[in-house]
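Input/output pair, single chain:
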Amino acid sequence: MSGRETACPNCGKAALVPPARPQDANAPKLTLPPAIPSKGPSPAQVCVIAQQIIANIETVIVGKREQVTMAVAVLLAEGHLLVEDVPGVAKTMLARALAQSVGCSFKRIQCTPDLQPSDILGQPSLDRDSGETAFRFGPLFAQVVLVDEINRASPRTQAALLEAMGEASITEGKITYRMERPFMVIATQNPIDQEGIFLLPEAQKDRFLVRMSVGYPSLNEEKQMCERFQLRHPIETLKPVTTPDRIVICQNAVREMRLDSDVCDYILALVRATREHPAALLGASPRGSLGLFRAAQAMAAIQGNDFVSIAQVKTLAENVLGHRLIIRADRKHRYHEGVEVIREFLAGKKPDYGPASPS
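Output:
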């Protein structure tokens, strides 16, 4: 061989390095393919789909556009919704209408004190014909799951929801089952009837992206509802306006919504302020920061914007962060719940420090 003698850097032995071959001018050159633009929908297209869903739900839910829009935003943000209100204000109907409008499978779980985790997750079942054991899937294996009166279920049963809500999966033995996307849990609870209930622990509340109430309709809205529902309920003929696959594509597009550094700084400053407030025993978690981040992206897409604004963050802050705070017992005369602390920050008021808390 001919070439240049060079010492091996590892063993020190001499070796001949062959000379480099001259490059053929006619040889094909390596070229990188052009960047493929994203095939996902634009914010304007996501806005059109979202508005179609909202309009479709409003044929069933009368006069609650803000709440319907919030529910659609939670779906696009890949979150879960906690609806806290008195009976008879269409909490269940909102969940059914949302599922039917997007063409998703829907299951309802009625919580009672004797409900067991296996009743919602499923359990192994023996096939008598084949003699084999197969897993029988519970009602939690649906794309939109309504957990009605969640605070009537025992803490053990409530805890069975945590993995599905946090990781979109359910583990049974050595096997982990992934939930079908889109996956959304809508839970309801009655804040008035407090007999025979189990309060949700903070870890459970933190899994919900948004907590909201529906509220009573106005006089004109209730009259319109009576006239519209005279012959039959509109939910019986409600048709889907999109598909689950399209919703997943919109969810991916929401993640790509631009959020400038100043908006992100505002979110983090607001969340950190809840941890330092003198009345807060527990402030919002990092999951709350990410939740507000994602919910603002979804709301911006619904409104047809190309970027997230601080105004959209302020609109969502109470519903996203309020239920994540715990107020000190000695400050409950001033702050009844966490949402009042959030309102104080949004209004630019200074916290009420009052007397020093006992150690």
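DSSP finds 13 helices and 13 strands in the chain. Residues 27-32, 355-359 have pLDDT under 50 and may be disordered.
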